[in-house]
Amino acid sequence: MAALRKVFKAFATIARLLWARSSASFHAAAGFPGYPFSKEGEEELKITMESAATAEASPEFVFEDLGHRAPAADGAIQLSTSILIIGSGCGGGVVAGHLAKALPHHQLMVVEKGFWYPKHKAPVNERDGLSKLYEEGGTLQSNDGSLAVFAGSTWGGGSTINWGVSWQLPARTRREWNKKYGLQFAESPEFQDCLDYVSNVGKIQTWKENDHNSSNMVIVNGSHRLGEACVTVPQNIVGDADAHNKICGAFCALTCKGSGANIAGRGGKVAVTKTYLADARERGARFLQGFDVTKLVFDKRGNVTGAEGLWRADPSEPAGTGRKVFISAKKVVVSGGTLNTPVILQKSGLSNWWIGRNLHLHPVVFCLAEWKEETRPWEGSIISVANTEHTNLDNDGHGAVIEGMLMLPGLGTAVLPWKSSLDFKKRMLRYNHLTNQVVICRDRDSGRIILDPKSGKARVEYTVSDFDKSHLMESLVATMKINHAAGAQKIYTPVVAGPIYERLDDKDADKKAFDEVVAKLRKIGLTNDGCSYGSAHQMGTCRMGPTPRMGACNEKGKVWERNGLYVADASLMPASSGVNPMITTQGLAEWVARGIVVDILKEEGAETKSKL
């Protein structure tokens, strides 16, 4: 039966997603207007397309074109730089910006396996967005098929597709990193300065209560009625709140399309493409997109000498193909992300026990609810508030946070039950009356990234542990109670053949009905074959440690086994952050970048300080 449930879940999910993403008749019938769907959006699109010719003639980023480069005798195109940064996201982007400022006498190159989609070429629908912007086109799953993994694979990395959430690493977690994992810097004023610096660059702000969308107001109202903790969420979004009111609840994950992003006085999401990578560009850094690193190269003494890889001219060329390129460099910073950084190190011959292990994913489940009134769930900021009542269920910092959920038609309704095609379509016609919340677990237990011997790609070996499932269950039930207290007419549970709550007029009968749904859900459980798990946060696979026995890198991000090699991304974390890891990743990258500058200046006999 478990195998049958797994097959049913897989096929039902695929069928629902394909239909919801591509059916124009459903979009029209359900009231989802597509892009653009407001006067502000139309104005924004008009400005964007009118400026397309200018954008083509004077692009925001210019990338190396290797199409006419002749290869050397070994068949590889030869490039050289002083410092090579692999990855352009929250880690690599920050490092690039810092080093370009602090070391103007060094040549810098940033390489990215994904591609840059300027505003006039950015995806405007769910299908194209996932295929162009995400790892494996948004289809990556854990090896056992129990969990879907969403990770950015584009210029700007996770900052391009992150939903704006910009928490700093909590003090409780920093204390754990220090006391339990020996990372004393985690509680230092210097690291706090790094977190503050990247927060300032990201222009972090919070919304006022009347700026929240329907899913967030459910959290506000339900939490208040239950007497639970509810806080506003910091975001790296600039401009007026109303610039985001008509579009962001659906499209934030497909690059920023905030209305008015091209209009003076408005704004949008502050990805690293707008800050650190722009700083690097202005200071002469070179950029190469479509470059998939196959391995790092070292001399006999263990000094890094560069990287080999395959270059594709455009996304139409199949991944894993392209022209062979070798980039020589004196220093290499690997910022390929938690999924890819350990694979690059493994393929390069490194063998530290921690490389690929300690994978944390912040596994999530969803709580979808239906309301009498229209909710227009695609509008407003996706996550502007959070319920934090259940973040410490074990009194050791593990639990879950409850936040709003992206409401693209496919992903946002993925947990609607499937009884038949007709029944599903009837439920989907209520799309304009739905809200969704995501329950994000700070996982105590971990998995690992393994190297696929055939494809050379990362494979995710991860199953949500019973310990973490218990926290997800308690927090899911809490989310259902929040929706019930806020007045939901129906509440769907994220399990195959799961119970559905439907509100009754009689108060006592209604309470009994709700309690019965919760009891049935607990009895079914959040099984691997029956529950729809997801992950948008990946951490920990090259963790820092004070010794090689405790981590793959030292406290400054230097890889223990080689010289001149650093890691600067979320893979450095010794444990899950417990909050959206974007700012933590950027803070760690700033920390590593400052250390790199110190190392290089020491080698050159210059002053050893780096704080910009």
UniProtKB/TrEMBL annotation:
<dbReference type="InterPro" id="IPR036188">
    <property type="entry name" value="FAD/NAD-bd_sf"/>
</dbReference>
<feature type="signal peptide">
    <location>
        <begin position="1"/>
        <end position="24"/>
    </location>
</feature>
<dbReference type="InterPro" id="IPR012400">
    <property type="entry name" value="Long_Oxdase"/>
</dbReference>
<dbReference type="Pfam" id="PF00732">
    <property type="entry name" value="GMC_oxred_N"/>
</dbReference>
<dbReference type="GO" id="GO:0050660">
    <property type="term" value="F:flavin adenine dinucleotide binding"/>
</dbReference>
<dbReference type="GO" id="GO:0046577">
    <property type="term" value="F:long-chain-alcohol oxidase activity"/>
</dbReference>
<feature type="active site" description="Proton acceptor">
    <location>
        <position position="537"/>
    </location>
</feature>
<comment type="function">
    <text>Long-chain fatty alcohol oxidase involved in the omega-oxidation pathway of lipid degradation.</text>
</comment>
<dbReference type="InterPro" id="IPR007867">
    <property type="entry name" value="GMC_OxRtase_C"/>
</dbReference>
<feature type="domain" description="Glucose-methanol-choline oxidoreductase C-terminal">
    <location>
        <begin position="446"/>
        <end position="589"/>
    </location>
</feature>
<keyword id="KW-0812">Transmembrane</keyword>
<dbReference type="Pfam" id="PF05199">
    <property type="entry name" value="GMC_oxred_C"/>
</dbReference>
<comment type="similarity">
    <text>Belongs to the GMC oxidoreductase family.</text>
</comment>
<keyword id="KW-0560">Oxidoreductase</keyword>
<keyword id="KW-0274">FAD</keyword>
<feature type="domain" description="Glucose-methanol-choline oxidoreductase N-terminal">
    <location>
        <begin position="132"/>
        <end position="364"/>
    </location>
</feature>
<dbReference type="InterPro" id="IPR000172">
    <property type="entry name" value="GMC_OxRdtase_N"/>
</dbReference>
<keyword id="KW-0732">Signal</keyword>
<keyword id="KW-0285">Flavoprotein</keyword>
<dbReference type="GO" id="GO:0016020">
    <property type="term" value="C:membrane"/>
</dbReference>
<keyword id="KW-0472">Membrane</keyword>
<keyword id="KW-1133">Transmembrane helix</keyword>
<protein>
    <recommendedName>
        <fullName>Long-chain-alcohol oxidase</fullName>
        <ecNumber>1.1.3.20</ecNumber>
    </recommendedName>
</protein>
